[in-house]
Each structure stands twice: as C-alpha cells, then as structure tokens.
Amino acid sequence: MGLEIRSFRDEDLNQVKTIEKASFTDPYSELLFRFLKFKVGDGFIVAQREGIVGYAISEVHEDRGHIISMAVSPEYRRAGVGGALLQEAIKRLGPKVKEIYLEVRVGNEAAIRLYKKFSFKSTGERKERYYPDGEDALVMAKSV
C-alpha cells in the first residue's frame, strides 16, 4: 500500500486540518490541534502516502488509553488507512495502559465496524448532545 505511519510534525498541520474539515461537521481548530500535539506528543500520528491521508490522536490518562480523534481523507477510506492508524495507536498505548477506550458517533457505522474488528466492544453511551450537532456517542473499549 506504500503507507507510512509516523508521529505528527508541525509541517503536517495544514493537511491534517483539510482532512478534519472533510470528515467532521464540527472540525477541530488549528489551536486545538497545536494544543493536542503539545499534550499528547507521540500520541499524535499521521498516515502518509504521497501526502498526509489520515491521522489519529491518543493519550494516556491514568491507566487507560483514550483515542481522542481519528480521521481518514475521503478518497482513502475503506483502503486500510484507518486500520493501520488504529493498529499503531493501540501499539503505542498498549504497554502503558490496561484498557483503551474511545467515543464514536452512534450513527457512524463504518467506524463502529472498524473498532469491532479490532476487538473494541460497546460499554455505554454518552448522551445529552455529546457532539455539537446533538448526536450521542457510543463508548467502546478493549482490554490490552
């Protein structure tokens, strides 16, 4: 596939923002991406293939890993990029935590299928307008 997964670098920011805007109705701001990079360090990874085609952001919180956000450029979806990013995030978090969790829109069936493929299981929901547009989030987790 010619895909490289590596840590985010400052020069990746514009491409990451483009993917974010194409993926979400409420995209993260440049300031938030810069803060997250400062906060999570190597937990901010990108998939590169003739440019950045996806990213994932994860952090360690006590003994749990949290996948904060993940997105793939529309033209590279269903091509293994999301799986490669998820696998690398799990690999980086695994030695540091006992469990990894994430939130996903209840209506995002493709993402839910991907997470299930990696043994994430539903553990509950975050209701009451978790996302700015009012959609609830499904909480999924896996032991490591």
What is the compact description of this entry?
The protein is built from four helices and seven strands.
Overview of this structure, please?
This protein is an alpha+beta fold and 144 residues long. The chain has one domain (4-143): Aminopeptidase (3-Layer(aba) Sandwich). Helix content is 31%, strand content 33%. The chain has 4 helices and 7 strands. Strands 1-2-3-4-5-7-6 form a 7-stranded mixed beta sheet. It is globular and about 35 Å long. The model has no long low-confidence stretch (mean pLDDT 94).
Q: Name the CATH superfamily assignment.
A: Gcn5-related N-acetyltransferase (GNAT)
C-alpha geometry: globular
Task: Sketch the topology as an H/E string, one letter per element.
Answer: EHHEEEHEHEE
Structural class, judged by helices and strands? alpha+beta
- Report strand order across the widest sheet: 1-2-3-4-5-7-6
Number of helices: 4
CATH class descriptor: Alpha Beta
- Computed CA radius of gyration, to the nearest angstrom: 14 Å
Largest sheet: 7 strands, mixed
**What's the architecture, going by CATH?**
3-Layer(aba) Sandwich
What percentage of the residues does DSSP assign to strands (E)?
25-35%
How many structural domains are formed by the residues? 1
**Average pLDDT taken over every residue:** 94
Per the CATH scheme, the topology name is Aminopeptidase
Unreliably modeled segments: none
Number of strands: 7
C-alpha end-to-end distance: 27 Å
Summarize the amount of helix as a percent range: 25-40%
